[in-house]
Amino acid sequence: MSNTLKINISSERDTQAFASSLAQYFNEGVLYLIGDLGAGKTTFTRYFLTSLGHDGAVKSPTYTLVEPYQIRGKSVFHFDLYRLNDPYELELMGIRDYLETAHALFIFEWPSKGEDEIPEADLTLEILRTDDETAREITIYSENEALIQHLQEQVYARK
């Protein structure tokens, strides 16, 4: 059974702090980002990649489907599957070549559109908008109990 943690983010600064906390303990594997348009998935990714050590722009891969990065010698692939019409398009674009990269980090926005063509998530963030335009509710799912515990400690330390 997956471990779950809910946190509330009240500003972009909180998003940055959360991304930084996560980057300390999660820099390899598969991350799913779930949320409606405008929920903040790409904004979170920008802060997350910066926290991992990326220096430069973080572009949304909405039209290219994937943006690759090399961060401190590690391969990171940011996928945005929103415009995907059929999961088989991932096979045509060579997703297997990306997925064979050892010790890489794979970030998937709109993972449901990838169906069986993408691997299961090690960590899932579901980002929900609230009535307050700057606030978000994030539900975190992971089999990694230690990661959830770390994030929970970080959230309570900020309060």
Automatic annotation (TrEMBL):
Domain of life: Bacteria
A molecular-function term among this protein's GO annotations: ATP binding
Swiss-Prot/TrEMBL keywords: ATP-binding, Cytoplasm, Magnesium, Metal-binding, Nucleotide-binding, tRNA processing
Gene3D superfamilies listed in its UniProt record: P-loop containing nucleotide triphosphate hydrolases
Pfam families xrefs: TsaE
Gene Ontology BP, a term: tRNA threonylcarbamoyladenosine modification
Gene Ontology CC annotations of this record: cytoplasm
Classification via SUPFAM superfamilies: P-loop containing nucleoside triphosphate hydrolases
Record localization: Cytoplasm
Keyword Cell membrane listed: no
PANTHER family: TRNA THREONYLCARBAMOYLADENOSINE BIOSYNTHESIS PROTEIN TSAE
Family to which this protein belongs: Belongs to the TsaE family.
Protein name: tRNA threonylcarbamoyladenosine biosynthesis protein TsaE
Source organism of this protein record: Acinetobacter nectaris CIP 110549
